[in-house]
Design goal:
The chain is an alpha+beta fold. It has a single domain, classed as Gcn5-related N-acetyltransferase (GNAT) (Aminopeptidase, 3-Layer(aba) Sandwich). It is 33% helix and 32% strand. The protein is built from four helices and six strands, in the order αβββαβαββα. The chain has helices spanning 18-28, 67-82, 96-103, 123-130, and strands spanning 29-36, 39-47, 52-58, 87-92, 107-112, 116-121. The longest helix is centred in the middle third of the chain and has 16 residues, at 67-82. The chain is globular.
Length: 132
């Protein structure tokens, strides 16, 4: 699923192992999947250790159908039920993902290296977005 995306592709798929995913889901945070007809079409992983969104990916055939937003909102609702600490993520410049996060209320706060934008979501911002 992770390697099927058309943006934010891993240059080396071996950089993220099954063990890494298991560690993030079982020890560092929590993960969610979205299924359609018993097939995984999207997944998300939040990392409480580093207060980071480690992954949010949707299969290209299921983009723009609400899958990403459901995973996003479910993940952040859980995250902020665990901590009030601001959460961050990074994504490549000028991608659908960057536009998605801006639309979802994330604040661009800088860059990570020379190739990615850093976004943050505070507890207060999350509560303001979801109190209406």
């Amino acid at each position: 699923m992770r390697n099927s995306v058309t943006e934010n592709r891993l240059s080396d798929p071996g950089l993220v192992t099954d063990h890494d995913c298991q560690d993030f889901i079982c020890h560092r945070g929590k993960g969610w999947v979205c299924t359609v007809d018993d097939c995984i079409v999207g997944f998300a992983i939040a990392d409480l250790t580093k207060n980071n969104i480690w992954a949010l990916f949707v299969h290209p055939q299921y983009e723009k159908r609400g899958v990403g937003r459901i995973l996003h909102d479910t993940m952040l609702q859980w995250y902020f039920s665990q901590t009030n600490t601001t959460v961050w993520l990074s994504t490549a410049f000028d991608t659908r993902a960057a536009h998605f996060y801006k639309k979802a209320g994330w604040t661009q706060t800088g860059t990570v290296g020379s190739k990615e934008i850093k976004f943050e979501m505070s507890y207060a911002d999350w509560m303001n977005i979801h109190s209406s």
